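Apologies for my clumsy wording, but are you able to produce some protein sequence, whichever is easiest, and the tokens describing how it folds?
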Amino acid sequence: MGTKVESSEISVKEIILKLRGGIKYIKTQWKIIVIFVLIGSASGLLFSIFKKPTYKAVCTFVLEDGNKASGLGQYSGLASMVGLDIGGTGGSGIFQGDNIIELYKSRLMLEKTLLSEVVIDGKKQMLIDRYIDFNKLRVQWKEKNHINNISFDKDPSHFTRTQDSIVSDIVELFNKKVLMVSKPDKKLSIIRVEIVSEDELFARDFTLKLVETVNNFYTQTKTKKSNQNVNILQRQADSVKRVLNYSITGVASSIDATPNANPLLLTLKVPSQKKQVDVQASTAIYAEIVKNLELSKISLRQEVPLIQVIDEPVLPLTKERVGKLKGIIAGGFLAGFLCMVFIICRKVFKSIMM
């Protein structure tokens, strides 16, 4: 037991002595460390001067799904009796929870937004062209990949492999560094969309267009089934109404054909009576279809989500840049730290090789 305690005490002493020796050795190399700190501070200063500032565009909006179950409970039973499902029981939606946040980051939404045309400085321009121009990507493509001219003004389904590859790279970069979508408070339905870019106008217009594109897609998808139901019922109502109008015209024509018919000749009344039966049947069918159509329209209005923009980006946007003092301190600290690590590693390596 005594030898173990003694060996452990020796090892602790050795560690302390080695640390002291390392600190003393670093002090002897203070001139080299100072030189590195000065070089790092100068590099940080140059970085803060030549680094372009970035602009942050933020848009927040509130999203509330339509509550289908609250207003249609009394109509669901009636509609089910005629074989119509108006969605009165609710159910899980495809964009519940945080799914809409992932929708913002999807390639489909980002591609649609990038390929949208907006007015910047009085000129119509596609957002992807604006992004390519201020990042000088065409120059890089020409030097590295020998791509001279490339445009994105046609249908995305007809893009070439090169065009798809460029869009994919931009979308990936956006998800990593440019775009940030979050819910500041998990208990609330407020969503925050943030774009960081070196182009102030691009940051603002892209943020607004992205929110518009995603929210429109969200609304259309949420109400797609109900819209289809309303359209089908509307076509049926129009068709039955045409038949009803034709039957009413037929009754009048039959009566006009025998204006002074002999009351004793009952066969003369048969054509008009047949048309009247058609009118009564068409009237009953038309009334039922119109009732179902109105119920479906109520269901559609209930399903439309409430999307209200709270704050949207306005010029001038928040400007972020590395300050000169911050650049000097950060550059000097990083250079000094790396220099000390290098000095210690070199001393350890020499002691091992001796």
